[in-house]
Amino acid sequence: MDSAPSPTGLLVLAGTPIGDLTDASPRLAAELGAADVIAAEDTRRLRRLTQALGVEPRGRVVSYFEGNETARTPELVEALTGGRRVLLVTDAGMPSVSDPGYRLVAAAVQHGITVTAVPGPSAVLAALAVSALPVDRFCFEGFLPRKAGERLSRLKEVGDERRTLVYFEAPHRLADTLAAMAEVFGEDRRAAVCRELTKTYEEVRRGPLKELADWAAGGVRGEITVVVEGAPERGPQALTPEELARRVGVREEAGERRKEAIAAVAQELGLPKREVFDAVVAAKNAAGDGTGR
């Protein structure tokens, strides 16, 4: 159960423009001028934003980024418990969404501090809107691991996800990521690569994953958001033994024991456990000497 809110201190999470500074809301400008403390991911970017908005912050400005987030959080909590109005802004978009903020929010709530938000531009929602892919159900996966093996494992975890998937990615890793997605999701799975959203050189590339991977191999610059179509609906009858074994393998890689994974897949698909078990044995034999021993 949440603690009672503080009667004075207030933590404000403010969304900032993801590119075009004119997307800033009047409320953001007001909060920048009213805060007692502004915690900014990059104080230089904050200065450019306030200058563009014609705002002169009256409060103290401190840096709050990945490198000092753990150490600085207690200092900000102390300001909040002392009745201060603390504004948290990141370089672009909403704090806590693949950006600093979660630790401070959790600590503030633990201390009974009221937390509110100033909604703003979002690369996730903007990319979804322009992707031309289904948006009625989606999930945000953030950044994938940098190492190839870990990246593949993470993608396999959502290989059967029916909802549209949204990822952030660095431009120099985009080609490898799209190639890995094509390998796991299928070369023909539809996707959209959204580059430099709301900026001068905004670009949205739509097409099959293999086609997008080939395009990205030539080099891409800018801030990247990738939107991928969810897995198609398939009835149990359409699943091959290889697919059943793959689903069990994904659960095993995630930490489940084989017996538990087989039972879970069988229950999910409404199949007899023996059918799933036989598929796993067949796949194991095929990967070995094929003799069934």
Overview of this protein structure:
This protein is an alpha/beta fold and 293 residues long. It has 11 helices and 10 strands. Strand 8 and strand 9 (203-208) form a beta hairpin. The longest helix has 15 residues, at 273-287.
Beta fraction = 15-25%
* Total number of beta strands: 10
In N-to-C order, the SSE pattern is EHEHEHEHEHEHEHEEHEHHH
Q: How many individual helices?
A: 11
State the low-pLDDT regions, or none.
289-293
Topology:
Blueprint: E1 10-14, H1 26-34, E2 37-40, H2 43-53, E3 60-63, H3 69-81, E4 85-89, H4 102-110, E5 114-118, H5 123-131, E6 138-143, H6 148-157, E7 164-169, H7 174-185, E8 190-195, E9 203-208, H8 209-216, E10 224-228, H9 241-253, H10 258-269, H11 273-287
Parallel strand pairs: 1-4, 1-5, 2-3, 2-4, 6-7
Antiparallel strand pairs: 7-10, 8-9, 8-10
Key traits:
293 residues, 5-stranded parallel β-sheet, elongated, 5-stranded mixed β-sheet, alpha/beta
Task: Describe this structure in a few short sentences.
The chain has about 290 residues and is of the alpha/beta class.
